[in-house]
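User: Sequence recovery, please. Input:
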């Protein structure tokens, strides 16, 4: 295998031009002129003894990859991705903690309490990665995560955080206007449906919740939202009755923004879990201990 060092700069110019389809756009990304990109690519073609692009004077596509370049590009891009990952490891400092969590858990539970972690650990900065993508600790630089599920995450240590219940809620104004007093009343009032994890077999939908209560109610059509925090917000704004999970809704109930209905709570088959590598770094242990302590105090 040839040494890479003579080719690295030219390879990056080629990768950028191939991905963006333009020497000009590649130059903008690399902070050089389009002529400089073209020269680097030409230099690489000369060194390799093979053309990398078909160059056209007209048409939308001025640059088209040759067949060998098409075959090589994915490996070259993967190589730069691995270089970036290695660089991140070199410059990552122990005082930055990356926490991955869903947008709903971040806004409804974690963010209102995170200042307490800063007070206890002022030398650790928290970087929140709020998404519901599949977890890849190495690829996304994650130190610790909070996820909603049943505890089945391979190669990670999972600690259950909450015993959750699921119940119906609405705003005080909605309650006064529609007066839903029994489960049968759900058939005549505006409804809100949480679809954030609707495909998960253990996720508590309205249908499963009513089935657990052996209630035969023909639910009307309603607003469908794939974000649990926005589901609660729409309920607080008076747009309908929603199913709430205790971990996300308890603060809103205590404040009076939401009202629980029917005096019925069903245990959830899913829970929030704290996830980390089997051998956690000290900063992860600090966060885990703080999180478990806060939850224990609130229960």
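Assistant: Recovered sequence (299 residues):
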């Amino acid at each position: 295998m040839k040494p890479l060092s003579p080719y690295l700069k030219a390879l990056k110019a080629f990768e950028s031009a191939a991905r963006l389809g333009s020497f000009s756009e590649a130059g903008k990304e690399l902070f050089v002129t389009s002529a400089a990109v073209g020269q680097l690519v030409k230099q690489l073609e000369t060194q390799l003894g093979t053309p990398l692009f078909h160059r056209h004077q007209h048409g939308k596509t001025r640059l088209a990859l040759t067949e060998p370049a098409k075959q090589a590009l994915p490996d070259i891009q993967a190589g730069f991705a691995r270089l970036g990952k290695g660089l991140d490891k070199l410059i990552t400092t122990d005082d930055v903690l990356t926490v991955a969590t869903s947008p709903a858990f971040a806004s409804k539970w974690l963010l209102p309490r995170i200042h307490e972690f800063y007070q206890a650990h002022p030398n650790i900065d928290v970087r929140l990665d709020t998404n519901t993508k599949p977890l890849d600790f190495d690829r996304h630089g994650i130190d610790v995560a909070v996820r909603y599920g049943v505890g089945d995450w391979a190669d990670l240590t999972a600690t259950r955080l909450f015993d959750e219940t699921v119940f119906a809620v609405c705003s005080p104004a909605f309650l006064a206007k529609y007066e839903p007093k029994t489960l049968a009343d759900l058939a005549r009032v505006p409804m809100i449906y949480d679809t954030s994890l609707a495909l998960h077999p253990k996720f508590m939908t309205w249908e499963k919740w009513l089935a657990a209560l052996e209630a035969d109610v023909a639910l009307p059509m309603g607003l469908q939202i794939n974000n649990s925090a926005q589901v609660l917000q729409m309920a607080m704004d008076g747009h309908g009755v929603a199913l709430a999970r205790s971990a996300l809704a308890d603060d809103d109930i205590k404040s009076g923004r939401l009202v629980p209905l029917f005096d019925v709570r069903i245990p959830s088959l899913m829970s929030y879990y704290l996830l980390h590598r089997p051998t956690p770094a000290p900063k992860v242990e600090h966060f885990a201990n703080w999180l478990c302590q806060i939850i224990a105090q609130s229960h």
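The domain at 165-267 is CATH 3.40.190.10 (D-Maltodextrin-Binding Protein; domain 2).
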